[in-house]
Amino acid sequence: MDVGFIGLGVMGQPMALNLARAGTQLIVWNRSADRCESLRAAGATVATTPAEIFKRTRVVFLMLVDGDAIDAVLGRATSQFGANVAHHTIVHMGTTSPDYSRGLDADIRKAGGSYVEAPVSGSRKPAEAGQLLAMLAGEDAAIESVRPLLEPMCQQTMMCGPVPNGLLMKLAVNLFLMTTVTGLAEAAHFAERHGLDMQQFRTIVDAGQMASGISRVKIHKLVTRDFEEVQASIVNVLENNRLIADAARAGGVASPLLDVCYALFGETLALGHGQSDMAAVVHAFEARTDSSK
């Protein structure tokens, strides 16, 4: 039986490629058809519509930008929804609000399907290398049925409990990511404005106890001012920030660092850097410094 994959963006395309290269009988669809060509070359079948995927598969991975995009491909709130999801396992690998996922889970199960949350931790390069970490939530039987399919994409999978715990875990991880990268950008701005040798600064950060995979990637971007090769864009990070803030408010959880990050990423977007890598948040620090002179 073919496996479906819908959504071939920055993350979805390399993830699907790893599935195809592992020998998975894969059928894919993407709104922008040109994103499908590398999958076709890797042996995947390219569907002309999402409906074709549901007709030919029983497991469908979704790596889509938001709930509206998911609802559109599933035909949610239309007569086609039941036919699309009944007897299917729908695997949601993107990032949406926990409340949205909880409602989608209920609708899919009511229509006779199964639902698995599998948001991933990692950016484009880990996606290309098949080194993502998936945070799984849902019914045990559904999770175990798709877990082997995740192996070409993910070096590790973690069971997080019932829906929406997978997405709540992803948001918690992303909160750490955002505050870490924002702090690194502020440190780089401090060093640069004090006239320090930025290559030496990078070497010291890379050699120190705070060094990590993400710090090494982002300090390189900050020192070389290369924000065009995007692992996660300012727009994407700002939306994730909003999702975390909403979940924090709903749970009555204080999030002062997150709130500062939201302001800074919003300022970076307003400065015209929405499609740049998240390390471009340094522009917000620079603008604040220059405006204070």
- Tally of extended strands? 9
**Could you tell me the mean pLDDT?**
96
Element pattern in H and E: EHEHEHEHHEHEEHEHEHHHHHH
Structural class of the helices, strands and pairings?
A: alpha/beta
CATH architecture designation of the largest domain: 3-Layer(aba) Sandwich
Look at the structure and name the CATH superfamily of the largest domain: NAD(P)-binding Rossmann-like Domain
Radius of gyration: 20 Å
CATH class of the largest domain: Alpha Beta
Q: Helix tally? A: 14
Cα(first) to Cα(last) distance is: 65 Å
What would you call the shape?
globular
**What fold name stands as the CATH topology of the largest domain?**
Rossmann fold
What share of residues is helical? 40-55%
Beta-strand percentage range: 5-15%
Please give the structural blueprint.
Layout: E1 2-6, H1 12-21, E2 26-29, H2 37-41, E3 45-46, H3 50-56, E4 57-62, H4 67-74, H5 81-85, E5 89-92, H6 98-110, E6 114-117, E7 120-121, H7 124-129, E8 132-138, H8 140-150, E9 154-159, H9 165-193, H10 198-207, H11 213-224, H12 234-250, H13 256-270, H14 282-291
Parallel strand pairs: 1-2, 1-4, 2-3, 4-5, 5-6, 8-9
Antiparallel strand pairs: 6-8, 7-8
Helix pairs in contact: 9-11, 9-12, 9-13, 10-11, 12-13, 13-14
Question: Summed up, what is this model?
Answer:
Helix content is 54%, strand content 14%. The chain is an alpha/beta fold. The chain has 2 domains: 3-161, NAD(P)-binding Rossmann-like Domain (Rossmann fold); 169-292, N-(1-d-carboxylethyl)-l-norvaline Dehydrogenase, domain 2 (Orthogonal Bundle), CATH 1.10.1040.10.
